[in-house]
Every structure is written in C-alpha cells, then in structure tokens.
Amino acid sequence: MGLSTQELNVDVLVVCEKNSVAKAVASALSGGSYSTMSVAGVQCYRFPVGGRAWVVMGLRGHLMDFNFEGKLNSWSSVNPKELFKAQPVRLVRKEGVQYMEALKALGRGAEEVVLALDADVEGEGIAFEVIEVVKSINPYAEFKRAWFSSIDRDELIAAFNNLRSPNRLLAEKCFARSIIDLTVGASFTRLLTLSVKAVKPAALPKGRFISYGPCQSPTLYFVVQRALEREAFQSQKFYRVVAKLKVDGRVIEAEHAKGRFSSREDAEKAKVKADAAKTAEVAEVKGSKTRRAPPKPLDTIELESLASRHLNMRAKRALDLAEELYRRGFISYPRTETQVYPPSIYERLKAFAAHPDLGQYVRGLLKLGAKPTSGPKDDKAHPPIHPVKAASRIEVEGALGRDAWRLYELVARHFIATFSQPAQLESRRHVFNVGGEKFTFTTLEVAEKGFLAVYPYDQPREVAHLNVKPGDVLPVLAVEVREGETEPPPFVSESELLKLMEKWGIGTDATMQDHIQTNIDRGYMYIEAKRCIPTELGRQLIVQLEKHVPEVVRPEVRGMMERQLARIASGEEGMESVISKAKEYFLAQYEKLEKSIDEVAKEVADVASKSIAEVEGRKRAGRRGFGKPKKKGFRNTGFWRRPTPPSRPP
C-alpha cells in the first residue's frame, strides 16, 4: 500500500535510472538495513544516515520526450516544412507519469537530491528532467550528481563520498540531438509519406508510413550500398588444379602454385603434365612464426560486434542483456568508449583467482605479474567493460538465463585475455614438384596458446604439420581440374555494420543497435544468417534519396552533425546555435527534395505495397530479424505545456 504525502519524511532523495540499481544503491549505503515502501506505485527504499532520512527510488529511463504541439501534429493540414520553424516541447511519457508523481511526493520536502543516473549523456539528460520536476514543487532543493561505472558496493560508496555538480552541457547535448532528430525526421517522413500516398493511395496500408531518420537512413545506406555492389558484380569463371597426395596414411590436397587459372586450357595443360607423374618430390618446406596479440579492453561497439560474430546474438539483444548484467552487479557499465583500464583493475582480476573454471589460469597470471593490453580510445568517463563479480554459470543463468551467461562468459574471458600473453602460431608452406609443376600445401599449428587458453573465440583453424623434408618422395593419388566462379561481396554483417557506424559517427555507442532495429521495424531490412539484407522498399528509398539528395543519406553528414553536438558538451558552442545550424542545413536539403519529390514518390510507391506485404509475411512466419514496434504515448501532468497524442500519418 502506498504512503500518503503527509507520511513522507525525506531529507535526501536519491534517484536512479532503474529499480535494480536503486536497490543496489540502498543496500550499499545502508549496509543492507533498509525498508521498502511504495509511493505512487513506485517501489522505494528508506533508511537513516546520520540522523537524516534517505529514500532511494528508480525510474524507467527518460521521463519525457520532445514532440510538436497541437495543430503541428496534423499531417494533412500542416506543410511539413513548417516543422523547421517550430519549437518542440517536452511531453511526459505515458509510462513516466507515476514516476513523476513519486518524484513530486518525495522531492517536495527533500533538502538534497542525489542524481544517481547512468553516467553518460543520456543519463545527464534524465538528471535534468528530474531537476525540472523537483524544482517545480521544491525550488530550494540542492542537486548533486553521483558518477559510477558499476554497482559494486565499494564503488558506490566512493561515488557518494565524491558527489559532483550535474553537467548541464552534457544534458543540452542530449536535448539538442533529440530536437534535431525529431525536426528532421518528422519533416522528411511526412513529405515522403504524403507524397507517396498522393501518387498511389493504396501503396501504404493504414498506419504505415515512409520514414526517414538522420541516423536510421545513413545506417540503411551502408546495407543498400553493399547490396548494390552485389548486383553490379560480374562473376568470372576460374580453374584450380589440385593434386591429391598421400603422406603417412593421410591424404592432402595440394594446389597448383599459380593459384587460379583464368582459362580451362591452361589448367588442363598443367593437369596433363602433373598427371603423367606418379610421385611428388618435396621441393621445399618453409616455416614461419607469427604472434597473435591478445584482445584490447572491451568497449560497447566491440562487445556488440563480438556477440554478433561469436554468439550469433543481435546487437540490441546483447546490449539489453549487458545492461541487465550491470544492474544485477555482474559487469561494469556497458556503455563506454574507453579501451584503457584504471589502476584499480587488478582487484577485479584477483577476484577470479578462486573461480571454479578460470581460477587456475588467473592464479598463473597473478604470479607472472601480468599487465593488461590497452587501446587508443579513452573517453575519460567509464572504464572498459569488465566483470565486477567472479560469478559462476549457475549464478548468472539462474538470475538472467542462458544468453546472459553466454554474454557474461564472453566478457569475463575477454577481460582475463587482456592480461594474457600473446599466442604463437607456426605455419609451414610445403612445395611439391609433380611432373615439373609446383604445388603447395600450408599447415598451421598453435605453438604456444597464450591468451587462446582462456579465449577460445579467436582459436584459429589448425591444420597439422606434415612429417616431411626436402627430397622426400610421395605417391600421387590423382590430379584434378576444378571449376569455380568468383563470388560477389557478401551482404554486410551486423558486426561490420556496427563498425561502419562507429567509423562514420552514426549514432552513439548507446543508440547504434537501436538504429539498426528501427530499420528492421520499418521493414527496410532484415537480418538472416548474421547478414543485413535490404527489402525492395528499403533499397528503393535509399536509391532515390541518394539520387536526388545524397547529403541526407551519406554517412559524412551525420558524422559532421555529431561533431557539432560535441561542441555543446565541450562548451565551444551553445545549444541553440547548433540546433539552428542543423535546421538550416536540412531545410536546404528538404527544399531540394521537394523539387523532385514526385519522381521519388512514384518510384517508392511502385514497390511499397508489395514490399510491405512481404515484410508482414516474414513477421507472421516468425523469421528472425524483425522486432515488435515500440509503443509511444504522452499524458499531461499539470505543469508542462499541454501535450498532444503521438503524431500519426492520416
């Protein structure tokens, strides 16, 4: 049963991003001695500290979204270009209402509010939403910021002993990005949708629209460009000459030293010459050793990339699980761009010395005084992703399921591997003389495992060495000519797509997987066998936009915008100035698209209905790579400007 406002007595209010973090914070600060209570349906944790009443509560992410007011949400009566002149307002999310009521009730009498939100740009944005809510009913409250990268007890206590001021510049960067993306996305989406419907009313089923997004569309651009490269690829035939040799009871296939022949005639000549010989002489055995370095510390994009490549796990799924592992105290904060560990990291490594599976290996590292690798990236905010707790499979799987364990194990083994020695690989190239024609066969063995002993994900495909030396003679079992064709480049993988997005600054480490998912939700692409494949609608949309307004889909533009947003956080340029410049730039692109919109709309409309039907069929069939659409809604809380329902196409 919830407490009434009169029953609340709060001196210090601590606000976290999720309930699980709130519970961990309460446990750390109270030594486990806290009581629970419900305020407006929100579970809170209460305990005394030095004679003051502390209450900790958790939110569910952002309390508010930016949107347009009143008549501006009418697609049919407002020219989309007008949105560039409008000032978006913040409206309360439907799911945020009860949390705002709880904030008001608890913050009304609080002397101090500690903002213990996630330590990143989005977290700072939420922090200033909380400040706005509490200030509306308690202008005298003092606000402080707790900055931490894990919910480890000692780190939480240290964070609360070193509170800082909230960073308005980081919050303004968050808000500016939201305003720009809303304005640009909404205006282009309405122009495209209304124009397609005008050309062919039946092209879009009710509720469907043609969407554009400043990050969504450049992400799709990468996928479509690879598909177009595949379409343009001209396959060519080639021929390989292979000799089957017997070595100590083992049959190997040595390939002609020339590699691929462009003509069958030349390949057949080599085959005839080699086929006449019944034996092969070992002409040369040349060995070489290579050093494979252990991995660099783990940042967000690399975690998503590795999860896709090694665990066949979608990037969004991986980050969602990583956040749950963080909130349950298993790993550090998973949104980071850093590849340099802090000095205190050795304590995390020592914790694994008693681990049932990894302990023996870690004890060996500790005896050697192992030093970790490091990478070039360091945002000075959070450490690389690493395990905070040396957890067992039973512990992680019991709390969060099998996929969470697989991801945790990847993080843990990657972390330990960064302290490990390089692996030593030995390859040997064998050259055989077969009737005057040279053939080669290469073997590879791991000479020293190094980090591969704990990190099997990078294990190379081994081919055992041959026990031969120059001058040895081997029987030839057969010589064959094999025909093949050059293959087009593969569709871009999700792992590769993330790397491209990172390179060009498309989105942030926190949002990249969301932009991929948005394209899937809109029916512009799907993922199959780890490959991103555009639908005909997605392909045509990008082809037409690139033809007429390439600036809105090519990745350079979004990268430029992100650099401008970074100027807000650094204090080099004001929020309003950056927003104004972005609107001015995209308004020019909008007007450029207007001039050719009829042609664009016709081409998109011609494929829209069929493509959408195919997408819906895939969803009904339960094919992988399609997600559920997100629900959005707003509601008035009394002191923000009157909200309107979510904007929908007519």
Summarize, please:
The protein has 19 helices and 16 strands. It has 650 residues and is an alpha+beta fold.
Overview of this protein structure:
The chain is built from 19 helices and 16 strands. The protein is an alpha+beta fold. It has helices spanning 19-30, 97-107, 121-137, 153-161, 168-199, 216-232, 264-275, 300-311, 315-327, 345-350, 359-368, 393-400, 402-417, 494-504, 512-521, 536-548, 555-570, 575-595, 597-620, and strands spanning 12-16, 35-39, 42-49, 52-58, 64-67, 89-92, 112-116, 142-145, 237-247, 250-256, 279-292, 423-434, 437-448, 473-485, 525-528, 531-534. A hairpin with a 2-residue loop joins strand 3 (42-49) and strand 4. The strands form 4 sheets. Strands 2-3-4-1-7-8 form a 6-stranded mixed β-sheet, sandwiched between helices. Strands 9-10-13-12-11-14 form a 6-stranded antiparallel beta barrel. The protein folds into 4 domains: 5-166, Rossmann fold, CATH 3.40.50.140; 171-231 and 490-620, Topoisomerase I, domain 2 (Orthogonal Bundle), CATH 1.10.460; 237-293 and 423-485, Distorted Sandwich (Topoisomerase I, domain 3); 300-417, Topoisomerase I, domain 4 (Orthogonal Bundle). Helix 3 (121-137) crosses helix 5 and helix 6 (216-232) crosses helix 16 (536-548).
In the predicted model, the low-confidence regions spanning at least 5 consecutive residues are: 1-6, 626-646
H/I helix tally: 19
Oligomeric state: single chain
Tally the beta strands: 16
Structural class: alpha+beta
Average pLDDT across residues?
90
| Helical content (DSSP H or I, runs of 4+) | 40-55%
Per CATH, what is the topology of the largest domain?
A: Topoisomerase I, domain 2
Give the number of domains.
4
CATH homologous superfamily label of the largest domain: Topoisomerase I, domain 2
Main β sheet profile: 6 strands, mixed
**Backbone shape:** flat
Terminal residue distance: 43 Å
Q: What share of residues are in beta strands?
A: 15-25%
Give the name of the CATH architecture of the largest domain. Answer: Orthogonal Bundle
